[in-house]
Amino acid sequence: DISVITFFRKRQRMKTLIEVKHVKKIYRMGVEKILALDDISLKIKKGEILCLVGTSGSGKSTFLNMVAGLEKPTRGEIYIGGIPIHQLNEEKITLFRQKNIGFIFQSFHLLPMLTALENVSIPLVFRGVEKKKREQIGKAMLEAVGLFGYEKRKPSQMSGGQQQRVGIARALAGDPKIIFADEPTGNLDSATSREVMTLMTKMVREK
Ligand code: ADP
Ligand code: MG
User: Fold this and answer.
1) Distance from the CA of 107 to the center of ligand 2, in angstroms?
2) Which atom of ligand 1 is nearest to the CA of 27?
3) In degrees, to the nearest 5, what angle opens at C-alpha 154 toward C-alphas 150 and 111?
4) Ligand 2 geometric centre to CA of 73 (Å)
5) Which ligand is nearest to the CA of 36?
6) How confident is the model over 41-79, as pLDDT tens digits?
7) Which of 56, 92, 96, 171 is deepest in the core (most CB within 10 A)?
8) Any residues with CB less than 8 A from the CB of 86 and at least 6 apart, and which?
9) Mutate to test the pocket of ligand 1, among 1, 27, 31 (most ligand atoms within 8 A of CB)
10) Checking phi first, is residue 81 left (phi over 0); if not, alpha (psi -120 to 50) or beta?
């Protein structure tokens, strides 16, 4: 049982950006079958901010991974901007993700050897942006999430909240059409969670 809560929606009529039709996901573990998603259909419009709410194990991550093109549904169809992403092969879906999707993870998933600036710039490397420009955008993104002056810090030299700000900056750096966040505040205390949520929704609304 997953509920969808609308956090923000534009006043004017917007186009449907994501359409999920009768998606089913069955995981096989030996002879056991786990029905993780059973016939999910949903439309998401451009400019919406939605929350998926449900108990642990209800299929939220499975759903997000499917819509973000990280996993394939067992049955059903997923369209993003009219493109049938359930039909794309590995190579095409990777390109599609790099171009259109930003992902924010619960455990931040920053690369420990890289600085904050380098972590934020990663999506731009995939997009073929040259180094000078990457640094310029990366710095602006860090500043936008309140981390001016933290460019050279490694993840281990930052608090959880600061690391997730880097995660947000990275997700937004490539100017994606869609941001997915899987329990982005799950590893943060409640005050920092509120800050991070406010920052995320503010950045998304501005863009
Ligand atoms: P949530 O994110 O809401 O906590 P998940 O999407 O992670 O839930 O899991 C949904 C169900 O699918 C759970 O029963 C979980 O155990 C199962 N599941 C998730 N991933 C796998 C997998 N790779 N193999 C087998 N079962 C899985
Ligand atoms: Mg989950």
Assistant:
1) 11
2) 25
3) 125
4) 16
5) 1
6) 999 999 899 999 999 999 999 999 999 999 999 999 999
7) 171
8) 72, 73, 76, 77, 78
9) 27
10) left
Q: Which amino acid is at 28?
A: R
- What type of residue is 24? K
Half-sphere exposure of 157 (CA within 13 A, CB side): 11
Compute the distance between CA of residue 117 and CA of residue 97 in angstroms, rounded to an integer: 21
The protein residue with its alpha carbon nearest to ligand 1, atom 24, reads 27
Q: Is 3 in the pocket of ligand 1 (CB under 6 A)?
A: no
Locate 181 and state its tokens. Answer: 């966040």
Q: Does any ligand 1 atom lie closer than 6 A to the CB of residue 61?
A: yes
Are β-strands 75-80 and 178-181 bridged in parallel, bridged antiparallel, or unpaired? unpaired
